[in-house]
Amino acid sequence: MNSLQSSFLAAAPIAGAGAGAGVRLAAPTRRARVSACLAVPPPPPTGAVSTGAPRELSAASRAVIEDEARYLVGTYNRSKVVIVSGRGCKLYDIDGREYLDLAAGIAVNALGHGDPDLVAASANQAATLVHISNTVYSQPQVELAKRLVETSFADRVFLANTGTEANEAAIKFSRKFQRVAHPGGDAPVEFLAFSNCFHGRTMGALALTSKSQYREPFEPVMPGVTFTEYGNVEEARKVIRSGKIAAVFVEPVQGEGGINSATGSSCWGCGWLATRLELS
Ligand SMILES: Cc1ncc(COP(=O)(O)O)c(C=O)c1O
């Protein structure tokens, strides 16, 4: 979800290029930006060096790494690199070494680091209003939702902070949808996901994540999830036809699973199957 959000913000709407009837495209309200890496970034911080050479850990890096181990819960297996700044698609570590940011956060920094418009918008908002409860209305929240609806397939927007929350919401939305669609009480409540998939770390999203090292330490997770082979439409078809499946969770490109792409017959095939087989 996070990557979907960011690619939406990075892409310029192209008239006539939508997926067919019902796609609404609004005129772009600002200059289109394709990629932070295609823009000329500002100069790197003074002292930055670009090198692929292996290196000894500096005292500064070691101090941060040791404090991390002392003060943070050890949930991540991190590379021993301490990043202190970024410009465009470049990152700089505590010793001034330069890196190409191939991960872009985790596919969320579509505008790169230090984008002047993003910096100004964030600073302005922070100076105006930081956070308010969802029990009152927020003008920027409504404006963002309106813009997303006008430039995408969606009718309405659910805003979440993380990918795992988006998937938790998708679990709930699909169960609610099925309950409304099956008032007789026979609503399907189970889910289909695929081998090597990753959908997040909260308990619901974890149940949809096939990789055992994420799931097993926290079992029992939410029951009712079937995993079939990523890209195997026939296998998916059989499970969907059981009539028990409320929703299918599929990554168009797997990241955690090893950069596997489900193009044509697999990913969109499953989406098509889900639609045709009355999942939506
Ligand atoms: C495909 C996919 N789904 C869900 C998530 C979870 O997103 P988040 O870390 O924002 O909770 C990720 C994170 O890497 C992801 O790659």
From TrEMBL:
GO terms for molecular function: identical protein binding; pyridoxal phosphate binding; transaminase activity. InterPro entries: Aminotrans_3, Class-III_PLP-dep_AT, PyrdxlP-dep_Trfase, PyrdxlP-dep_Trfase_major, PyrdxlP-dep_Trfase_small. It holds the Pfam family Aminotran_3. Keywords: Aminotransferase, Pyridoxal phosphate, Transferase. GO terms for cellular component: chloroplast stroma. The keyword Transferase applies. Its cofactor is pyridoxal 5'-phosphate. The keyword Transmembrane helix does not apply. Belongs to the class-III pyridoxal-phosphate-dependent aminotransferase family. This is Acetylornithine transaminase. The lineage of its organism: Eukaryota, Viridiplantae, Streptophyta, Embryophyta, Tracheophyta. The gene is ga11128.
